[in-house]
Amino acid sequence: MSLEERKQALEHFRDQNGAEVVVCTDAAGEGIDMQFCNIEINYDLPWNPTRLEQRMGRVHRIGQERKVCYYNFVIRDTLDGYILSKLLRRLRTLRRLWAIGFMRL
């Protein structure tokens, strides 16, 4: 999809009453605001933890009024499962570093 097509699809999704789940590809990683959702399902995980964090930030934005939940689908005991465990470990490390002021964005 072009950027304009993505914006139109997002507006259509936003206008649907009761829509709360968005299934994301890496295209959801930047440039769009999805804070009207509160559940995100990722089925294609990036290798870079920052890209996953950006994708999660599309839903959990300043002003979000609901609890946000993320689900990352992978098959256990596969390379994708291994990558997910590494990604989550790196994200936890980065959050700890940000919390103590070691890293600034």
What would the CATH topology be? Rossmann fold
Percent helix range: 40-55%
CATH homologous superfamily designation: P-loop containing nucleotide triphosphate hydrolases
Number of helices: 3
- Would you identify the regions where 5 or more consecutive residues have pLDDT less than 50? none
Physical arrangement of strands within the biggest beta sheet: 1-2-3
The portion of residues forming beta strands comes to 5-15%
Structural class: alpha/beta
Biggest sheet statistics:
3 strands, parallel
Report on the structure:
The protein is of the alpha/beta class. The protein has a single domain, classed as 3-Layer(aba) Sandwich (Rossmann fold). Helix content is 41%, strand content 11%. It contains 3 helices and 3 strands. The chain has a 3-stranded parallel β-sheet with strand order 1-2-3, with no helix packed on it. Helix 2 (49-57) crosses helix 3. The radius of gyration is 15 Å and the shape is globular. The model has no long low-confidence stretch (mean pLDDT 78).
Write the layout of secondary structure elements.
Blueprint: H1 3-15, E1 21-24, E2 39-42, H2 49-57, E3 69-72, H3 79-99
Parallel strand pairs: 1-2, 2-3
Helix pairs in contact: 2-3
Keywords:
Rossmann fold; three-stranded parallel sheet; alpha/beta; 3 strands; 105 residues; 3 helices
Short description:
The protein has 105 residues and is α/β, with parallel strands linked by helices. Helices cover 41% and strands 11% of the residues.
